[in-house]
Amino acid sequence: MRKLCSFLVKLSGLVFVFLVWQIVTSCDLLEPTLFPSPLQAFSAFANLFVHSSLLREIIYTLQRVFSGFLIAAVFGVFLGLIIGAKESLSKSLEGVIDFFRSIPVVTLYPIFILLFGINDEAKIAMTFWATFWIISFNTIYGVRQTSKIRREVANIYGASKTQIFRWITFFEALPQILVGMRIAISCALLAEIMCEMFMGSDFGIGQKIYEYNVRLSAPELYALVVTTGIIGIIINRVFILFEKIMIPWKTSYD
Fold first, then answer.
1. What is the C-alpha radius of gyration for the chain, rounded to an integer number of angstroms?
2. Tell me: the pLDDT tens digits for 129-165?
3. Per CATH, which fold does 37-246 belong to?
4. Quick one: how many helices (H) and strands (E) in the chain?
5. Which end of the chain is more exposed for a tag (fewer CB within 10 A), N or C?
């Protein structure tokens, strides 16, 4: 019963948004051809799912999202652990990391086009860039915030530096690493949708959003926007379950 109540509370926010959406369209506060009702959007979604290749578009988008994200996770965590473990190295590279992570990925769009063209490699590279700095920064921060007392106690009992790093530093930093990864995977989805819209693609949600925008097919356009939001929610919830498995001593999600 507690979990059901918690679910209904979380669902109430979405219900409120769609209720406001319906009220706006029912009162003709906006041009109906440009701002369809929720019923029209969901009808368009069902039509796209049944009679179009929406599932294929989703799969192609997610393939590029996870490709860029996983590469960024491997390199980001690896470099973050190394940099975070060395205080002098962390301080010397702090400005460099802050500089690169402050550059919006959209401003680097022309550079990635020049380097990789407009193929899948360019999209994956931009997704990598959008996520790598988030993961590496959170990893460094997690390592730097670990308990010195625990490390000193382990050292007194004869643990080697490798053992201390493996069993104390890494696991204490893990919650912050996963926070960075959860933020990064949402940014990966945003970056990939943007790449598909601006670079163009044979398949992908962003490409379809661009096509329906050019055609002024508002119901289909809003249906795809809602689809993107649903995908983001699903990815986030799956990652929360992953966090529960990885750090059961820290997570307290319902």
1. 22
2. 999 999 999 999 999 888 888 888 888 888 888 888 8
3. MetI-like fold (1.10.3720)
4. 11, 0
5. N
DSSP letter for each residue of 177-206: HHHHHHHHHHHHHHHHHHHHHHH--SS-HH
Residue type, 116: F
Note whether 71 and 246 are within 8 A (CB).
no
**How does the average pLDDT of the chain come out, rounded?**
86
What CA–CA distance (Å, rounded) separates 163 from 137?
A: 23
The tokens describing 118, both together, are 């407009």
Residue 199 near residue 26 (C-beta atoms within 8 A):
no
What secondary structure letter does DSSP report for 169?
I
Q: On the CB side of 217, how many CA atoms lie within 13 Å of its CA?
A: 16
Q: What CA–CA distance (Å, rounded) separates 47 from 39?
A: 12
